[in-house]
């Protein structure tokens, strides 16, 4: 019988710790499938963030570094500069990338650092129990915005793809979502393209994935998907924000 | 002799790093260590190395973390306020057992302080370079030649013990110009780094550079193991001795203060005071044994340092407070005058007799 669905080889045989309905698991799988398809596991080094995906270093078969909160792009820079032939990716949450690590991500992009960033936007801090993130939507209730995010006192959400696409060094920036089969397929295409851009030494590539955190949103997994569609998709439009290839 | 060149202390450190095989330098400008970055910026591209001016000290030390994890020799340099920012990264490097060389050319503090030479980061370097249980090797040069030699040694020690090694200098040493024999110390121990993140090549299990251990028992046993390794490092503690054999008074000083102390000692000897110098070369590990032994015959100690009194604690601990220890210090960027040191030696000599 032909096997049509199997565990990607780039994933270790360890059960992950993510909550039921969490999209981190899907994203891990997509990254692993891409590593298999491009046959790069043996030459890839990943950088895990601080956040729910901190244990990503246990789940991928490639060499992995664990970085301090927000510093993954700097660690990735060191790894890439030391061995430029290797593929280097960071895997970061929105608190990690868009709050404490803003300087590191902006400057890695500005340098055109030839790395790939997998950016998981779930509009909240997951690991620490649901505090407001830079990506938390206006009016969204979190532990530290209990009356809903008030943009007058708490400021406005940061749209990362829009921001980074203004930088010369960014070769590719696309926002995708994991709320439907179609969108998941697109997400994988984007991840693959981001790695291929790195292979072709085009510069900095980032894929932002709109994701769920059913636990801290306080919603059942199916309701969480619906919340993402109803609230995040209108605020964070999907699409390609920068594609250097397309520009020429 | 043909290899003797005139260099600034900061340049000697940079040249030594290149000699030691360091090809990856990450830094952020701060006075008074900027010549190191400038030297690297000039030389690295010519030899196929990386010079990268990071967006901050935080980014620079994390780039060092990445490069070290990939198995290459790597370095960053800064001065006091910048080292504070690096403390996060220093702790993570220790947690992941990654080797690297860190240079601190100290300036006066706290806060933005000043840009003149100081030794007020002694506690930070030897006690609390970052959060958690860990140590760094701390080497204290006193001449430009030593800035060259100890930097090379720092790379070897860092690799051998999988830990960070700091060169602790000061703004004056960084700027001093002296002839350096750069043909010295070229022999390198090449250590196989089977833990490095070089890519599995599909031939081995994946390697991890990690400092997260949620099981308290596991973390405790790892910390204990790391400190067993530190015990071997402690065997390497060393100091230079100058006229100590018959000394009633022992001056303890490192870096630029040791040079000032030597002049003061020569003058005090002419006055007939039996005084000598113990100059710690390794600040961590501290040369405790040398001091304890000296305390058997010496009657009093003088500590000369450019801080409100930091190394003096290590001296008192080493001799178990068995003899009077006088502090001769300046702070804020002031450098002690030889006359001040001679005065302290005279006082100690009096106190030792009474
Ligand atoms: C320096 C530092 N500050 C704070 C923390 C605590 N902390 C751990 S995870 C986290 C937020 C992670 O949120 P995000 O990046 O959005 O990832 P998620 O958990 O949602 O996947 C914080 C603040 C830390 N570990 N280190
Ligand atoms: S807390 Fe949220 S982001 Fe973290 S694993 Fe659970 S669902 Fe996923």
TrEMBL record, chain A:
<dbReference type="InterPro" id="IPR029061">
    <property type="entry name" value="THDP-binding"/>
</dbReference>
<dbReference type="Pfam" id="PF02775">
    <property type="entry name" value="TPP_enzyme_C"/>
</dbReference>
<feature type="domain" description="Thiamine pyrophosphate enzyme TPP-binding">
    <location>
        <begin position="57"/>
        <end position="208"/>
    </location>
</feature>
<protein>
    <submittedName>
        <fullName>2-oxoglutarate oxidoreductase</fullName>
    </submittedName>
</protein>
<dbReference type="GO" id="GO:0016625">
    <property type="term" value="F:oxidoreductase activity, acting on the aldehyde or oxo group of donors, iron-sulfur protein as acceptor"/>
</dbReference>
<keyword id="KW-0560">Oxidoreductase</keyword>
<dbReference type="GO" id="GO:0045333">
    <property type="term" value="P:cellular respiration"/>
</dbReference>
<dbReference type="InterPro" id="IPR051457">
    <property type="entry name" value="2-oxoacid:Fd_oxidoreductase"/>
</dbReference>
<dbReference type="InterPro" id="IPR011766">
    <property type="entry name" value="TPP_enzyme_TPP-bd"/>
</dbReference>
<dbReference type="GO" id="GO:0030976">
    <property type="term" value="F:thiamine pyrophosphate binding"/>
</dbReference>
Automatic annotation (TrEMBL), chain B:
<feature type="domain" description="Pyruvate:ferredoxin oxidoreductase core">
    <location>
        <begin position="247"/>
        <end position="341"/>
    </location>
</feature>
<dbReference type="Pfam" id="PF01855">
    <property type="entry name" value="POR_N"/>
</dbReference>
<dbReference type="Pfam" id="PF17147">
    <property type="entry name" value="PFOR_II"/>
</dbReference>
<keyword id="KW-0560">Oxidoreductase</keyword>
<dbReference type="InterPro" id="IPR052368">
    <property type="entry name" value="2-oxoacid_oxidoreductase"/>
</dbReference>
<dbReference type="InterPro" id="IPR009014">
    <property type="entry name" value="Transketo_C/PFOR_II"/>
</dbReference>
<feature type="domain" description="Pyruvate flavodoxin/ferredoxin oxidoreductase pyrimidine binding">
    <location>
        <begin position="15"/>
        <end position="202"/>
    </location>
</feature>
<dbReference type="GO" id="GO:0016491">
    <property type="term" value="F:oxidoreductase activity"/>
</dbReference>
<protein>
    <submittedName>
        <fullName>3-methyl-2-oxobutanoate dehydrogenase subunit VorB</fullName>
    </submittedName>
</protein>
<dbReference type="InterPro" id="IPR029061">
    <property type="entry name" value="THDP-binding"/>
</dbReference>
<dbReference type="InterPro" id="IPR002880">
    <property type="entry name" value="Pyrv_Fd/Flavodoxin_OxRdtase_N"/>
</dbReference>
<dbReference type="InterPro" id="IPR033412">
    <property type="entry name" value="PFOR_II"/>
</dbReference>
């Amino acid at each position: 019988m032909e096997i049509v669905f199997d565990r990607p080889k780039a994933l270790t045989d360890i059960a992950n710790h993510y909550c039921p309905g969490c999209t981190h698991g899907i994203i891990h799988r997509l990254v692993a499938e891409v590593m298999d398809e491009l046959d790069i596991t043996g030459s890839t080094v990943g950088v895990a963030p601080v956040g729910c995906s901190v244990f990503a270093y246990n789940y991928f078969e490639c060499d992995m570094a664990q970085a301090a909160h927000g510093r993954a792009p700097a660690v990735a820079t060191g790894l890439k500069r030391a061995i430029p032939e290797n593929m280097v990716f960071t895997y970061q949450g929105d608190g990690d990338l868009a709050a404490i690590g803003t300087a590191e991500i902006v400057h890695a992009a500005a340098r055109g650092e030839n790395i790939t960033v997998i950016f998981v936007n779930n509009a909240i801090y997951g690991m620490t129990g649901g505090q407001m993130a830079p990506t938390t939507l206006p009016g969204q209730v979190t532990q530290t915005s209990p009356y809903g995010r008030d943009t007058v006192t708490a400021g406005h959400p940061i749209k990362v793809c829009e921001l980074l696409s203004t930088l010369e060094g960014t070769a590719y920036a696309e926002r995708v979502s994991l709320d439907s089969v179609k969108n998941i397929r697109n997400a994988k295409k984007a991840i693959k393209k981001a790695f291929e851009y790195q292979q072709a030494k085009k510069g900095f590539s980032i894929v932002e994935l709109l994701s769920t955190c059913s636990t801290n949103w306080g919603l059942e997994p199916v309701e969480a998907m619906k919340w993402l569609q109803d609230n995040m998709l209108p605020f964070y439009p999907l699409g390609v924000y920068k594609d250097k290839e397309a520009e020429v | 002799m043909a290899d003797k060149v005139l260099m600034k202390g900061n340049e000697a450190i940079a040249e030594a790093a290149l000699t030691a095989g360091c090809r990856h330098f990450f830094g952020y400008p701060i006075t008074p260590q900027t010549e190191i970055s400038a030297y690297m910026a000039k030389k690295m591209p010519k030899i196929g190395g990386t010079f990268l001016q990071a967006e901050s000290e935080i980014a620079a030390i994390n780039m060092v973390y990445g490069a070290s994890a990939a198995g290459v020799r790597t370095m960053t340099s800064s001065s006091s306020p910048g080292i504070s920012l690096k403390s996060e990264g220093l702790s993570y490097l220790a947690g992941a057992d990654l080797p690297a060389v860190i240079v601190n050319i100290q300036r006066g503090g706290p806060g933005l302080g000043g840009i003149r030479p100081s030794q007020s980061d002694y506690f930070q370097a030897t006690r609390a370079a970052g959060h958690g249980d860990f140590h760094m090797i701390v080497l204290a040069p006193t001449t430009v030649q030593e800035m060259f030699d100890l930097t090379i040694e720092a790379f070897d020690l860092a690799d051998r013990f999988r830990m960070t090694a700091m060169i602790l200098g000061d703004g004056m040493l960084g700027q001093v110009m002296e002839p350096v024999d750069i043909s010295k110390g070229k022999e390198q121990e090449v250590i196989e780094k089977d833990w490095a993140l070089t890519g599995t090549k599909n031939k081995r299990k994946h390697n991890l550079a990690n400092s997260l251990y949620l099981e308290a028992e596991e973390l405790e046993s790892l910390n204990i193991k790391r400190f067993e390794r530190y015990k071997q490092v402690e065997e390497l503690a060393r100091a230079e001795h100058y006229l100590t054999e018959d000394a009633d008074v022992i001056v303890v000083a490192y870096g630029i203060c040791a040079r000032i102390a030597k002049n003061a000692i020569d003058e005090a000897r002419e006055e007939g005071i039996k005084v000598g110098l113990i100059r710690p070369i390794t600040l961590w590990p501290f040369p405790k044994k040398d001091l304890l032994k000296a305390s058997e015959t010496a009657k009093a100690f003088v500590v000369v340092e450019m801080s409100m009194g930091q190394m003096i604690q290590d001296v008192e601990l080493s001799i178990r407070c068995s003899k009077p220890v006088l502090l001769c210090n300046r702070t804020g960027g002031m450098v002690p005058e030889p006359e001040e040191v001679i005065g302290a030696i005279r006082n100690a000599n009096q106190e030792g007799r009474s």
